[in-house]
């Protein structure tokens, strides 16, 4: 008997949760504790998972490559991710997926939303005690420490001590990843309980924001792709349609698998044999991009945070929305390559902003569909960043590109 995929399990659990909420109403609140347990289990290992993922990614960079190419790559990653988060925020303000639901009262929220000035925000990026940051779940500070830790390993990578520390970080990350995988097996039960409780207490109109959420995600991802493709094609002086055609195998694999990791080998092959990017640039930048550049995930996080805020009737100022852009960018670091990884990343962002974590149930049921647009944008934008760097470093072979392959 063929095993039901994780995505299908989530879809079935979501449908059953909504149906149970309609049939049993407020009594579904009695099973909400199962959803709370699921959310706690996600939070349990998130700090350690993010630390190990970032340390492994940054620590893997060769010191010789941290120079010009590495800086170019990181600047491009940050720039494209920030632009993606900004466009996600703009799209939510236009479509408003979390408001205007006829006959449905906004969800109740009794927590405290973040309120911080921009100078305070920048200062709070830097930890004074990383252990305290870990205990408090301050993910921004944990991420900043992890970047420094990874850079220190990279710069001393040839010493035996650093090699052992790096190997320990990699092995530790694998163990934490297994914990996350175990927790995600409980996801269908958690999603069923959360959506059943929300639907039972709020009403069937909860389905409306899901459709609007998907519309906002797909429109934003397509707009970002067209923008980046246009800029890079103009810089390289190539036909943008020809670029997409040469990436057809990468695009098909990314859509079919919704996995950046699975797409990576095909992505590198297309870069080297069809676009004419040198193997040195292709293998370094594409590998880094898989973990450190996730424009589609930034879109998902930004749209999710604002939609959840709208659904719970939380008014966000312009300054707070700017903070969400920063949080969306930081939450993509390490790019969790596990089933449901986007849900974990969104939960990190909700923790960082103080928005209600329960709102994650609103997007869980359609995350697989959002994952199609998210992975497609992630993978193609990784290639475009690699292409841009190859052209700037004069490691782009136009003869290969001009071949009809």
From TrEMBL:
Ranges annotated as spanning the membrane: 41-61, 73-95, 139-156, 186-207, 213-238, 288-311, 323-348
Subcellular localization(s) per the UniProt record: Cell membrane
GO cellular component, one term: plasma membrane
Pfam family, one: SDF
Key word Transport present: yes
GO MF annotation terms: symporter activity
GO process annotations (BP): dicarboxylic acid transport
Highest taxon of the lineage: Bacteria
Keywords: Cell membrane, Membrane, Transmembrane, Transmembrane helix, Transport
Main location: membrane
Gene3D superfamilies to which the protein is assigned, alphabetical: Sodium:dicarboxylate symporter
Record membrane topology: Multi-pass membrane protein
Key word Membrane present: yes
Name listed for the protein in its UniProt record: Sodium:dicarboxylate symporter
């Amino acid at each position: 008997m063929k095993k039901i995929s994780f995505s299908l399990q989530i879809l079935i659990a979501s449908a059953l949760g909504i149906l149970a909420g309609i049939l049993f109403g407020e009594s579904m609140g009695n099973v909400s504790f199962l959803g709370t347990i699921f959310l706690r289990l996600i939070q349990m290992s998130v700090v350690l998972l993010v630390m190990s993922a970032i340390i492994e990614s940054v620590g893997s960079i060769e010191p010789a490559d941290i120079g010009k190419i590495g800086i170019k790559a990181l600047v491009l990653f940050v720039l494209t991710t920030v632009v993606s988060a900004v466009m996600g925020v703009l799209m939510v303000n236009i479509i408003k997926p979390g408001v205007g639901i006829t006959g449905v009262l906004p969800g109740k929220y009794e927590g405290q939303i973040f309120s911080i000035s921009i100078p305070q925000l920048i200062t709070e990026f830097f930890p004074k005690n990383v252990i305290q940051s870990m205990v408090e779940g301050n993910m921004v500070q944990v991420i900043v420490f992890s970047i420094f830790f990874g850079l220190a390993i990279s710069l001393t990578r040839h010493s035996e001590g650093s090699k052992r520390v790096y190997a320990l970080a990699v092995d530790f990350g694998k163990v934490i990843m297994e914990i996350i995988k175990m927790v995600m097996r409980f996801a269908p039960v958690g999603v069923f309980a959360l959506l059943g409780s929300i639907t039972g207490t709020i009403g069937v109109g909860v389905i409306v924001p899901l459709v609007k959420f998907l519309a906002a995600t797909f429109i934003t991802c397509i707009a970002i792709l067209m923008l980046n493709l246009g800029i890079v094609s103009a810089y390289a002086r190539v036909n943008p349609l020809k670029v997409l055609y040469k990436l057809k195998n990468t695009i098909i694999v990314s859509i079919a698998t919704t996995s950046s990791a699975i797409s990576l080998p095909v992505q590198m092959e297309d870069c080297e044999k069809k676009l004419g990017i040198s193997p040195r640039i292709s293998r370094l930048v594409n590998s880094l991009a898989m973990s450190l550049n996730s424009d589609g995930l930034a879109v998902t996080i930004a749209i999710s945070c604002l939609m959840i805020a709208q659904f719970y009737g939380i008014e966000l100022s312009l300054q707070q929305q700017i903070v969400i852009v920063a949080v969306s960018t930081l939450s993509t670091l390490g790019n969790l390559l596990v089933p449901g990884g986007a849900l974990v990343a969104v939960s990190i962002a909700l923790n960082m902003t103080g928005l209600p974590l329960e709102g994650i149930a609103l997007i869980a049921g359609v995350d697989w569909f959002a994952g199609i647009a998210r992975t497609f944008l992630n993978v193609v934008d990784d290639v475009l960043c690699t292409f841009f760097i190859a052209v700037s470093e004069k490691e782009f072979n136009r003869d290969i590109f001009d071949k009809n392959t």
